[in-house]
Amino acid sequence: MLKSRDLILALAILALLAGIALRFPAFVMPGNLAAVLTDTSPLIILALGQMAVILTKCIDLSVAANLALCGMIAAMLNGLGVPLPAILLAVTLLGAALGAVNGLLVWKLNIPAIVVTLGTMTIYRGVIFLLTDGKWINAHQMSEGFKAFPRMVVLGLPMLAWIALIVVAGMTLFIRRTGLGRALFAVGGNPHAAVYTGIHVGKTQCAAFILSGALAGLTGYLWVARYAVAYVDIA
What we know:
By secondary structure, this protein is mainly α. Helix content is 74%, strand content 3%. The protein has a two-stranded antiparallel sheet. Strands 2-3 form a two-stranded antiparallel ribbon. A hairpin with a 2-residue loop joins strand 2 (153-154) and strand 3.
């Protein structure tokens, strides 16, 4: 068991928590741990999407720019009076579409993922600047319902934390219980062997980018609503 990286990491985290708790007991109080979970929830969601891409031996450098663009679109749609459910659907689909651009370039043109996403990272942030002329959308320009949803407390946790936990559970099921989830490991572990088992490497990598983009798009709304500001350089 001591050869397990996951176990060693878990023990290291527990040791750090114990050490901090001895010096600052308030750190491990339930309320503070809930606040830490809430603060890290956007990063948890982004990391899970990035994980899917990394499993296929690719990388997505554009997730933060995707988040920023989708967050700005969410704020602009809110300014136009679009209902919140429609905003959530729109930014998730937009994020997936931006991820699909990355995936298709990697798959169809065989361009290295790091080159593709380095370029789209700049393009996506440039699109924000073109849409807004570099201006910010601030808290007073957002509706109360738009800002309140991530902060709404359910069973002691804000909705932002619950969404992160739901994504964690969903990704766990996806990775362990679906053919596509297992294909991610196969493509990253040995793409040539994956082909012989009937797995399409390019399509699998593209699907990973789409998943990463969709989660980045969702996080775009959550980030902007939580911090009540949208501008070119967020995230």
